[in-house]
Amino acid sequence: xRTPVNVTVTGAAGQIGYALxxxxxxxxxLGPDTPVRLRLLEITPALKAAEGTAMxxxxxxxxxxxxxxxxxxxxxxxxxxxxxxxxxxxxxxxGMERGDLLEANGGxxxxxxEAINAVAADDIRVLVVGNPANTNAxxxxxxxxxxxxxRFTAMxxxxxxxxxxxxxxxxxxxxxxxxxxxxxxxxxxxxxxxxFHAEVNGKNAAETVNDQKWIEADFIPTVAKRxxxxxxARGASSAASAANAAIDHVHDWVNGTAEGDFVSAGVVSxxxxxxxxxxxxxxxxxxTGGDYEIVQGLAIDDFSRARIDASVAELAEERDAVQGxxxx
Length: 328
Ligand code: NAX
Description:
Elements: E1 5-10, H1 15-25, E2 36-41, H2 47-59, E3 65-71, H3 74-77, E4 83-86, H4 98-119, E5 125-128, H5 133-142, E6 152-154, H6 157-171, E7 178-179, E8 182-184, E9 192-194, E10 199-200, E11 203-204, H7 205-209, H8 212-224, H9 226-234, H10 240-255, E12 263-268, E13 280-288, E14 291-294, H11 302-324
Parallel strand pairs: 1-2, 1-4, 2-3, 4-5, 5-6
Antiparallel strand pairs: 7-10, 8-9, 10-11, 12-13, 13-14
The protein binds ligand NAX.
Catalytic activity: (S)-malate + NAD(+) = oxaloacetate + NADH + H(+)
Enzyme class: oxidoreductase
Domain Lactate/malate dehydrogenase N-terminal: 6-145
């Protein structure tokens, strides 16, 4: 039997946590041969709720679940962590300025980055889900100088999955017919879901759609504002779909992406495609051997260039804001 992989989940008592933990414990994160030990991090007032979820996890008698530890101390929860899913974050509440939001999240992601640096396993891989995901990931990464920067990623896989579904509906095909549909930039309303490099049954997606107006006025805003539409309809923000995307992101990172395809992830820029080095921006990426790499050599036309630049400018502003607040 294999040694269990330590998977730390923050915000474990929240709604994404509730949708995520059972899938991790059932083997969907790392595969059917890999036992997992769950490490749940919550704030003190939510520890009891996390214990309740842990009781339910016990009651599933998952063969792959080797144990569950619960803590409100990052130094305990990240101890020996091989995979960390940073879900818990401070949401924007009414009347909160962006600076307040960034500051509140800096107060979460700075100590978590420090704890990861101090106590996580050498092969630690981090996915930040909590918003603003790209900038929270940047804050954590900057406070973990001993961890390779490439091990810190932010989630844009939900945006990608939303884009797959919208495109498949439009063309009356299934998501299985779609490939290479990337999200560029920030996980925010400025994100750019790119049909110009995507393929549908081996043909260029934008050409197959052949409707620039639909791409600009319908597809892009529908994908970018889907989170708000879910809140409007459900009365709560996306949870099961967000958990599903987190599973997809880590699964593909660890197990590799399909030959000839790519996926979307927020990764530290190396300057590719004119994205300033150091920013955590979404790119088309492939994974082999446990490392995400930015897909190189895609031709970017003027339309895509302007969209990518706008979203990356927002990321640079967020970075400048957290720098101004002394958070990085
Ligand atoms: P919930 O409010 O249901 O749960 C958040 C949990 O985090 C709470 O239980 C809270 O106690 C905990 N928490 C807060 N501070 C913590 C800390 N310092 N350490 C550990 N736990 C802490 O939110 P939920 O719906 O689960 O969403 C979680 C985050 O995901 C939010 O920031 C949300 O904006 C973000 N999302 C990101 C998405 C993405 O695609 N990147 C999509 C879905 C989601 O909106």
